[in-house]
Amino acid sequence: MTGDAKPELPLGKERIQAGLAKSPFIGFLGLEVTRADPDKNEIAMRAIMKPEFERLRGSKQWHGGPIAAIIDTVGDYALVMSLGRALPTINFRVDYLRPAIDTDLTAVARVRRSGKSVGVVDVDVLDDKQNLVAIGRATYSTLPA
Amino acid sequence: MTGDAKPELPLGKERIQAGLAKSPFIGFLGLEVTRADPDKNEIAMRAIMKPEFERLRGSKQWHGGPIAAIIDTVGDYALVMSLGRALPTINFRVDYLRPAIDTDLTAVARVRRSGKSVGVVDVDVLDDKQNLVAIGRATYSTLPA
Amino acid sequence: MTGDAKPELPLGKERIQAGLAKSPFIGFLGLEVTRADPDKNEIAMRAIMKPEFERLRGSKQWHGGPIAAIIDTVGDYALVMSLGRALPTINFRVDYLRPAIDTDLTAVARVRRSGKSVGVVDVDVLDDKQNLVAIGRATYSTLPA
Amino acid sequence: MTGDAKPELPLGKERIQAGLAKSPFIGFLGLEVTRADPDKNEIAMRAIMKPEFERLRGSKQWHGGPIAAIIDTVGDYALVMSLGRALPTINFRVDYLRPAIDTDLTAVARVRRSGKSVGVVDVDVLDDKQNLVAIGRATYSTLPA
Q1: ipTM of the prediction
Q2: C-chain residues within 8 Å CB-CB of B139?
Q3: Could you give the CA distance from residue D122 to residue D32 in angstroms, rounded to a whole number?
Q4: Which of A124, B5, C135, D96 is the most buried (most CB within 10 A)?
């Protein structure tokens, strides 16, 4: 997702944040990298609630759409951090566990497998009280472009 | 998703479009109902490409996030059309099949099962040339609120 | 899954049935190829209920386990039919729609995308009355071994 | 899955093992409960390799089918342990991460959410060397029968 030629690996928080900035849609999500831990193969990002994310006008409840998009994106960067190149999503699943109302969200992604052709990542999405709002599981192509 | 008390069922295109308008996030997606066929349990909506959906600035390629959100939303309304009430998403899966570049998208949702507690819907997402861009499979709670 | 060197493609019903016979677990499932249609990228197989498949002893109800295994296997052969080599499953999802009681099952698999590295297949599982019992969506690696 | 009237909850290892014994298909899988931890909402079971599970005759490699069935079953009992009644699977996803060859398997299931109508469970499947072979994510109906 970074488009850079031969960046130093693993990517640090600033490089990842700079990569995010190249995508208008990720800009809409407003993701901020809060933790990048290549030793644990984990990354965390934070998203601030804004009116455009609402399910119903005035409800302060997150629509599931931006939550799914956050899962896809943060999961991707858990692999990008170590591999340093764009990784297309093959597929992902999201399970919604609780409504997210009047809260920011933190997504924590952890690589479960990084193989030669496929990577698998789990993503937990937490609200301000550390309640689990949604969980994602995503598969990305790790083949060289 | 409509929030209306006892609408006449099944909902027609206009009622569904009015329901969509209550959601700021769906407004961001800009979905237009193009077909509502309660006999076939099918519904179709169209989304116009806009710069905020881009994966990389200037690429005209759809980010996967809005595609996933479209699948979740159009799948939901395939059931809402007949049931007339908000149906929370339990979970969904999206498979990305081809890049969607410089094209609008049409999502066609078909109910596979509408049970007392769970509904299952398949969603195909097509580009302007009728190529399959992504497919979704989603599960919604059909329990009365 | 066939292990044969350079079989004539697409594989016909007999070749596919012979491929199935090399797997003890598929032997346990007892799958019979009933249709192989490479033009439509569809294949169908039939499984006969037997006591070992029961969820509860004497219930004549299929446990979900063999249904999931049938989906994985029949989905795989929808691609094997045209590609002629073993294709490892990357992941799959199964949704159970109705109990399957005192019935044989037919699984119909249809290729949704056969790409250079990934193939995606949908599988419908029907009972003797053509009711939909379960649906599967599976992703396989199509990379040359 | 137990079929018992009002068992004492949470179920202990012996009660769970007795519940498993009522299912011919689970008998085929040969699952042994190795840990039942209701405080952590975790349960673990072990399955011994046998020739009927082989992908190809003589390969000693597990077919994906029994692995998927193990995930579905062990995930179910992570909820049954606390709820004490049969819980139909709504859907599940399995990701295969590595071949499982000449090894027994241990499945560890952890409840991620146990709601009024839906429960969500994650299942990790490990080989004898503690390598992750497959991961599952399953949704069950927790509605009273």
Answers
A1: 0.95
A2: 95
A3: 19
A4: D96
